[in-house]
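Readers outside the structure-tokenisation community will struggle with the description of the input data as it stands. What matters is that the chain and its backbone geometry are given together, residue for residue. For illustration, here is how one protein appears when written out as sequence plus structure tokens:

…
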Amino acid sequence: MSPSDVVAHLTKPARVFDREMEWADLVRFVCDPSPGATLGLVSGQRRQGKTFLLEAVAKAADGFYFDGHAAAEAETLQRLAERFGEHTRATHPPRWQRWEDAVDALLALGDQRPVPVIIDNFPDLVGPSPALPSVIHGAYRRLHQVGRNNRARLILSGGIPSLMRRLFSGPSSLHQLASLELLVRPFDFREAARFWGIRSPRLAVQVHAVVGGTPAYRGDLVCDDAPTGPDDFDAWVCRTVLNPRVPLFWEARNLLEEENHANRALSHSTLVAIAAGRSTPGEIAERIGAQLTDVSHVLAVLQNRGLLHAEPDAFRPALTRYRIAEPLLAFEQSVAWPHRAAIEQEDAADVWQRARATFDSAVAAPRFAQLCRDWATAHAGPDTFNGAPEAAVRGTVSGPVGHPRLDADVVVRGNVGGRPGVLLSVGLARWNETMDIPHLERLRQALSDLGTSGEDTNGAVPACYSGIGFGPELRAAEARGEVLLIDVDRLYHGE
């Protein structure tokens, strides 16, 4: 069977939803017929389906898979040896006393053919065995020195990329050996809607504002309970994320459990401040009454753990704005946490009725704005902004004295004629508001102020993004080519 036939033969199982690109990258890596042992690194936030994907690849390619757990080194080596014996059908499993012996035996599986050797949850093994990355590096060096025609395709999988980078830094950096570095991300908002079986775009935004694109939340944490339609959303929230008997209710707390005790309270307060709309370090420090240096440290920790995204302001690059990366965490800080005691004592429907307005303003509205930014860079057609979008972020337009400040929700920059960073569009996003001519007038004034300050606004398109719709005057302006209008239908189905 030729290499191309082998790759084609490893069909992605139907139970693995989407992940076409990730599957193709993994299959190309594990089936590569080239001589020499290779190394792949797979990372991603928890509950994104890394294990599910890697188990499927190992099974399809008749490879070896081992799920690591935090345990003493001797216990791990014994469990690994037992799994190795099952895989090789040995009469008796080996008795490894050192990681050097185990790694050499695992790589030897690739002596005859390209074979995946997958160690999942790798960081959990490094804690009790901090020398393990160096042991693996040494095993590859020995294979290279003896010129063995080994074709082991070792894949080490773990948590967030920053953690994997720390594990593999230093003089024996495994990054130098890796020919594959794969990040398993949450589903894109369109993929998430399909995964949840949601056809209504507005309902899709609401559900995404609660659970984002994390696939495990549907299967593992709510037992496949999805809203049956727009009218079922409120009831779905009450029976899942506001239900203490459902695992999803507790998940947001678990996202912070790795913080040390000294940082946990400040981390919580920082997230509460961001959920309340404070996005800069100064605003956060003022809101929670903490020192700016302490807040900056916590922000760096949360960002390294993938819980926060940091982005420069579109028009003030020196100003960094933070947003919560995980929607469930934003829901927790804005809705669930302030009502935690009531949720455990009262009927969830009564609590949700009191919290519903907060959800719309503090959770759904910012999430809708982020989806609009994601749409601009990932789904907008090539002619939508008259240029190639490269980034879409928030931006603050401060005009002359007497002009109100405009907080632009979707500022798109891109490449036009080989000029990167060109301003393509300035937009407003309104989740629960019908937009009309006054919104366009504000955008026109903002573009004028930007032009006065020296920004090149030639060709910059004013854009309005609405979760409800647009008034007749704004529709008429669209017909005249004066504004770009994006509703939820276009967000999910159009360019």
User: Anything to note?
Assistant: The chain is about 45% helix and 15% strand. The CA atoms of residues 313 and 395 lie 5 Å apart.
